[in-house]
Design brief:
binds guanosine-5'-diphosphate-alpha-D-mannose; 9 strands; two-stranded parallel sheet; seven-stranded mixed beta sheet; 246 residues; binds manganese (II) ion; 17% strand
Amino acid sequence: MAAASRNRARDKYSVLLPTYNERENLPLIVWLLVRSFQESGSNFEIIVIDDGSPDGTREVAEQLEKIYGSDKILLRPRAKKLGLGTAYIHGMQHATGNFIIIMDADLSHHPKFIPEFIRKQKEGNFDIVSGTRYKGNGGVYGWDLKRKIISRGANFVTQVLLRPGASDLTGSFRLYRKEVLQKLMEKCVSKGYVFQMEMIVRARQLGYTIGEVPISFVDRVYGESKLGGNEIVSFLKGLLTLFATT
Ligand code: GDD
Ligand code: MN
């Protein structure tokens, strides 16, 4: 067997799925993920990090664990809503793969892009592959003008202040080498949505290589976004802190 295919056979992808009130979305995203990994013959596990969702997401996750098996669906819940950034850290501590995929559970990130992430990673031996809405065929569908301006604005201001050299700084659909993600998490101070931006900025500082794959981000159909005014304020604070300290 050639070295490359031996490596391929050993690679394992751990998907981190943070959930807060995603009862309607979880079965479909999990089904799509399982299908995608099975089609491409990749070894995988899905780690669901539910933060005590009042809508019963956890019970749905328990059903899925029964259906797909506890080696494929790992439930690593927390008692209450502690934020996205720390949900990833919590999930990663339980990951057994050598690659970690971070994505949203609300179907805004389609699992069909994962094989492209994997191909891209192998092509350039990248440390990180970042999905981008702001390059090539990438795009955003279903957002109102206000939300588009917030996202574009956050990207633009960060590009100007920090020049991180990636086109989508606030997106969260990414693949990381596990040890790279671990290092980045040690360095990152933010806890909320600003986490994604800080991760990619720190990645550049540490000299990690980043490949990009255009993705389409489709706004959720079920449930609602947890991004509120508080997150925008903490994004700005995080950005200024990074600007001042890096
Ligand atoms: N466990 C946990 N705890 N999960 C959470 C929390 C939390 O405190 N807050 C949100 N989530 C989960 C949601 O259930 C969903 O799976 C994912 O995190 C993203 O949350 P959304 O509320 O759907 O985010 P969004 O659509 O507004 O924001 C998306 O775009 C942002 C900007 O481009 C996400 O991709 C963000 O990560 C991204 O920064
Ligand atoms: Mn969403």
